[in-house]
């Protein structure tokens, strides 16, 4: 029997539905999450099954309802907050950074904040500067938060189920360009632990460490590289924190060349941190400086030809990798 | 006040009232003496960090917490010692926290501005002005959705009226009829600035705009605070929805202990008048004496007992060990 395939959006929805059936404390809170099912239709059908008490439409008040989620999480529930566009996390920063991330530590371990914030990342949707950013570095910087960056439907489902069961605030970034991506997702129950990287493709000559949207780009580049006789390994950390440093370093030591890819800004960003981890852990095994590739350091422009050059593509990654391998 | 308090000989209700107001008196005095010792520890350089004293505002915390059950929730502020004590925290572990000791409520990791205590429903003091309005509203959301009859009280100063998230969550609370009471302690000053310089319109008008039930009370009169708080808590418990209670009060000291020279923003005469004519502990003492609930000797005895407790608590905290340095990385994640 062929393996069942789901889209990324269906995998996210299935994870939510399963966890909501399993635990009555799990509920969804956000703008147009109920009948509208979000503009991306990721949540379609959930309000019909679980009702408006558990799939809760809010006013356009990101700070307010994120704060409500923190308080609900502290007092026995497991909220899943929906922040429609990743750009809007700016509005929630005090609640996430000063409240959710610190409550457990500041209280000497007495209070817990088991909540998930689901939001999006990614450019190339022609949405311009305030609907196209990939701001995962911001939350990755903060002790007390966990940050998840799924790259396949399988990972999205397994990681989201773990995020919901986690007793800490977890931020879950979904690439909006990936919602229609299909991939195998088994019918049976499974979870994927946070903090375990996945080798998406094995190779010997160069390592492409890639997150979220950039995993598909890296896999495409790896196909192009193979035609040049270059065997690329694609490593997906899956979470920026907790971070599986060992898998990244092991791969770097094996291939001796590393490109780090993340759709956020490189400066002080996820790629900078991952590159530093590799440099510190595998310095004596490297044959070339670690290369970072991410969004150009500009606000994401609207005009399609301008926007298209702001983020790495299969072709640009292929070119950089080919040169690094001396071909 | 109920009629029963007018007639001390009238039986069990009166006895309960009698006992209640003596308990309230003891609690208010505990907060006052606690803060005096905080000031002392701070000025003797025994306490690190900052100290924002609650002296002068005791009737608000005690009047409201007296209307709550132990399993009701509160959120507190940077000026939070009074709220925590009124909700049931013990002075020894409070002082230990203020000195950064392991025996403190947060194992020394929170300090004066972050005391939290699940056992008394204290979701935590918050050093971001208005920072806990979401948490309190969320606790009320949870209380309602888990089918409990718990109530959440959100304490904040009038300075928090400048924070937009307050208006976001009041809107949510009214839409969803959440059992949350927003208690605005109007101590007149946003740090070093009189609130009239920062606050357009009226305070209650802001809550009323959302259709939230509002009330204004003299925050120096603990009986008045308690009466209105009891009504609002009962209403919230019965699913009547949120409320906003403005308590007009006064911060006896500076914004923090180090704020000594205050004449550029308020006069010594003003401070003198509040302390001599509007002191909440003296107002309650006069009531107790007038009603025959206490005499001067019994009030002195309470003062002496509270002083002994507080002094023992200070000693406990000073003698307590600091946390082991290895604890620095503990409890970042649950």
SSE inventory with pairings:
The complex is a heterodimer of chains A (327) and B (334).
Chain A: E1 5-7, H1 8-22, E2 26-30, H2 46-50, E3 55-57, H3 62-74, E4 78-83, H4 93-106, E5 116-121, H5 136-140, E6 146-148, H6 153-165, E7 170-175, E8 182-184, E9 198-201, E10 206-210, H7 213-227, E11 232-236, E12 239-241, H8 245-255, E13 258-265, H9 270-282, E14 291-295, H10 304-308, H11 314-324
Parallel strand pairs in A: 2-3, 2-4, 4-5, 5-7, 6-7, 10-11, 10-13, 13-14
Antiparallel strand pairs in A: 1-8, 6-12, 9-11
Helix pairs in contact in A: 1-6, 3-4, 7-11, 8-9
Chain B: H1 12-43, H2 58-65, E1 73-77, H3 81-87, H4 91-98, E2 122-126, H5 133-145, E3 152-157, H6 164-175, E4 180-186, E5 189-190, E6 193-194, H7 203-208, E7 213-218, H8 222-237, E8 243-248, H9 268-277, H10 280-291, H11 296-319
Parallel strand pairs in B: 1-2, 1-3, 3-4, 4-8, 7-8
Antiparallel strand pairs in B: 5-6
Helix pairs in contact in B: 1-2, 1-3, 1-10, 1-11, 2-3, 2-8, 4-11, 5-6
Order of adjacent strands in the largest pleated sheet of chain B: 2-1-3-4-8-7
Number of domains of chain A: 2
**CA-atom Rg of chain A in angstroms:** 19 Å
CATH topology grouping of the largest domain in chain A:
Rossmann fold
Helix/strand class of chain A: alpha/beta
Give a description of the structure.
- The complex is a heterodimer of chains A (327) and B (334).
- With 327 residues, chain A is α/β, with parallel strands linked by helices.
- Chain A folds into two domains: 5-184, Thiamin diphosphate (ThDP)-binding fold, Pyr/PP domains (Rossmann fold, 3-Layer(aba) Sandwich), CATH 3.40.50; 198-324, Rossmann fold (3-Layer(aba) Sandwich).
- Chain A is 37% helix and 20% strand.
- Chain A has helices spanning 8-22, 46-50, 62-74, 93-106, 136-140, 153-165, 213-227, 245-255, 270-282, 304-308, 314-324; strands spanning 5-7, 26-30, 55-57, 78-83, 116-121, 146-148, 170-175, 182-184, 198-201, 206-210, 232-236, 239-241, 258-265, 291-295.
- In chain A, the strands form three sheets. Chain A has a seven-stranded mixed beta sheet, sandwiched between helices. In chain A, strands 9-11-10-13-14 form a five-stranded mixed beta sheet, with helices on both faces. A two-stranded antiparallel ribbon of chain A has the order 1-8.
- The longest helix of chain A is centred in the N-terminal third of the chain and has 15 residues, at 8-22.
- Helices cover 44% and strands 12% of the residues of chain B.
- A six-stranded parallel beta sheet of chain B has the order 2-1-3-4-8-7, with helices on both faces.
- Chain B has a single domain (13-321), classed as 3-Layer(aba) Sandwich (Rossmann fold).
- Chain B has 334 residues and is an alpha/beta fold.
- Chain B contains eleven helices and eight strands.
- Mean pLDDT of chain B is 95; it is low at 1-11.
- The interface between A and B is large, with 43 and 44 residues.
